[in-house]
Design brief:
Arc Repressor Mutant, subunit A, two-stranded antiparallel ribbon, 5 helices, HTH gntR-type domain-containing protein, transcription regulation
Length: 128
């Protein structure tokens, strides 16, 4: 196993275990280099692998964050397209912006409450 594969596996394991929370940013490339004593190319290749595998996505000039909520939602038969809600302070990392053209119903309400449970937030606010 290459160094970048080992690093990617380690990060993926931390995401699965919840050590890196849903919606959290991964440590910066510089911080990972310092902590793991690996090269910049190793970190970049590990992040590329993680993007291919699905647990993280890159945001230009913002680093990498987990897509774990998306994967957990699929496991509960809830289909969401993960995307951050615009916020200059990134205050809405774990929000789901529901955009659809049909009336609100109990299935949608139940899905949103399930997502809140997955995130560990018992105080979900539903705005219809």
């Amino acid at each position: 196993m290459n160094h970048y594969e080992a690093l990617a596996n380690s990060i993926a394991s931390r995401i699965r275990s919840g050590y890196i929370p849903v919606g959290a940013r991964l440590p910066s490339v510089r911080r990972t280099i310092a902590q793991r004593r690996v090269s910049q190319s190793t970190v970049f290749r590990a992040h590329q692998l993680l993007e291919e595998w699905g647990p993280v996505r890159a945001e230009e000039r913002s680093g990498f964050d987990t897509m774990a909520l998306h994967r957990l939602a699929i496991g509960h038969r809830i289909s969401i397209a993960p995307e951050p809600i615009f916020s200059t302070k990134h205050a809405f990392q774990n929000c789901v912006h529901v955009k659809f053209g049909h009336p609100w119903n109990t299935k949608i309400d139940e899905a949103i409450r399930t997502l809140a449970t997955i995130l560990g937030d018992p105080a979900v606010r539903v705005h219809a």
